[in-house]
Amino acid sequence: MTRRTLKIFFLEDNPDDVELEIYELTREGFAVTPDLARSREEFLRKLPGLDADIILADFALPDITGIEAIQICRDRKIDVPIIFITGAGDELIAVDSLREGAIDYILKKNISGLSVRVARALDIWAERKAKERAESEREKFQELLFQAQKMESIGTLASGVAHDFNNIMTGILGYAEMILAATSEDSPHYEKIKIISSLCQRGAALTHQLLIFGRKMPIKLERININSFIRETMTILRPVTGAGVEIMLNLQDGIPDIQADAGQLTQVLMNLTLNARHAMDSEGLLVFTTERCSAFDPDGKQGEYLRISVSDTGIGIPESDIQKIFDPFFTTKSAGKGTGLGLAIVYSVVYAHGGWIDVSSKPGRGTTFKIYFPPLSEDTAVQVTSSNDFYDKEMNSSHGKETILFVEDEDMIREIISSALKSYGYDVLLARDGEEAMEIYRSRSDEIDIVLSDKTMPRKSGIELFRELKSMNPDIKFILMTGYGVSETDNEICRDMERIITKPCPTMKIAHFVKTALEN
Fold this sequence. Notes:
This protein has about 525 residues and is α/β, with parallel strands linked by helices. The chain is built from 15 helices and 17 strands. Residues about 335-340 and about 380-395 have low confidence and may be disordered.
């Protein structure tokens, strides 16, 4: 018969009792590996190296009681079941012992049943630990679900704010352009107007971050070799870290590719790098590590993943802040030093790509962010889901004589952009929404060379308008303007458009895109 190996730590000052207990356990099929403490001093000395399946403790030694032993183990985070064994006792002592944490209470006169009681105690302990682990995992997954729901809700709010803010920036930028065009360079107001335009661009960059966080930016998925990508991105990251930060690459050979948007992945690495620079006060070691690993995802499913670790030697993150660092607008930086969106954007981008992110940190010993991405197999075809190519680098002459149907529900935006297009020589027909645009197109389709439409409008959206126009005229030229980006469900229909313009966009670029679309 196979004997069950059992490592027992005895807290007992009577060696005869220990010998008897070992005999009873051995007789019933246990192979016992014993360790012994006869006093408080010996018990405390041996606890740090304790390696035992169970502790059998006399209830009352001269200088320590079993209940004190339980309290000491609890204080030192020693998680081992304890059985009290005593020569004398009563029901009240037994109840107190179990209440304090003992798993069983045995009288020495009943020692003949020790093996059964020990086996039962071990089974109860194992079941208890399994329930605790399951509860811990359940709480972890509930927290992840809550975090995801919270991020989604705030992301929706942020995207709505970004959309309205984009319209405001478009208006300010448009009027600034018009005033700048009418102002000579030697005017005392010329540089001030340029500053207004520059501030609009900064506002546009902020809304860009909000849209990434809200997962409203278009994603261009492509196959990426992460090792090559990190090496190439170093040309961008090294200048922002400063001379005092040493960067080390620890990249595992032969790791699989991933499917990601290169621009958003760059944003992730940039945000983590800037965060690390701040934590290290511009002096320390920053390590990028890649490796293939087996891991459990937030749903508790095990699989193979590509892990990217970004570690710094900075001040670390206080335990009280760990649960909040991915919250939008949470920041430990002083006023004016950060928006609190950096790590929130990292979280949002990683989860939008089917991955997840963990963080570990100790104050004074640095922080490590671990990002997990599902790997691509060699034969996986990557589908490009949408275009992120907004602007051409070269600007040609944007003047023309064609007729544009411009559809926009915001009065200010409609007035600014139509005025700009007219200044470039175009005839412009105006519509306040998709329904009005359809009415105009039905009556004047022979005159209209191209349609320029906002995406989000009442009554009929820009996407819906394009579908109906496309059914009427398969050769329709159509440009969509949006502050949100395009959802995956609309990707296919948008591929038939001439271009997607992201707000805010300077009116001269809008005119240029119209000119390019008409020429093509």
